[in-house]
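[09:14] KT: can someone run the structure on this one? pasting the chain below
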Amino acid sequence: MMEESGGPNAGDLARVADVLRGAHAVVALTGAGISAESGVPTFRGAEGLWRTYRAEDLATPDAFRRDPRLVWEWYLWRRSRIAAARPNPGHLALARFETRLRQFTLLTQNVDGLHRQAGSRDPIELHGNIWRGRCTASGCVISRPPVADELMAATSGAPSDLPRCACGAVLRPDVVWFGEGLDPEKVDRAVAAVRRSKVMLVIGTSAIVYPVAAFPALARHGGATIVEINVADTPLTGDADVVLRGASGELLPALERLL
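[09:31] RB: done, structure tokens below
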């Protein structure tokens, strides 16, 4: 366990804690790295192979139009693997930051819902949430539709077996697929928070998926201190004001203890 009293990050942890205490607005952005520490697979590459399909084969609007049942079956498999995960100390520390810091906004690229489980009240889930469904007709969001029961009981694969909204239209997973843009309302909220931030914590993200990868530069342009927390270098590393190298599940609680 990394302690704030020593170790390679000790001085930088104290520096970050100092700027956090003086900041009137803080933004944290999380990516797959924080959930990987809870055992959530990335679902990209070999680890995400399901049957003979890759994520890039199924997480698209075209795939859903061709075979919505197949896509839902894949998402049920993903859900089954995520269901065993629990929030780690990094998730829990970020939830407590909401009460410790004056104005704190949590942005996440993750769809697993672990921030909400940890107690974060209003994370901006930029890429959606795998546990929700969205109506393909109206766009309304349904919390935890009974997908598992409907698909597991189905044998014919007919369209009537698919989860449906109260209006009768088919539901799709409430996530952003390849080739789709982010929800404009969520982007607007995120950009507003980033622009007013004085500290931005960038945690466990590869910093290569746009437009979210542009948020640190936007924060820096407004005068914010950029802090990267990651186990490895990313394209952001050279531009960060402070780099804390290690697991977020260790570094975030250590940082909290210094506040």
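[09:33] KT: thanks! The first helix runs from residue 10 to 22.
[09:34] RB: yep, looked fine to me
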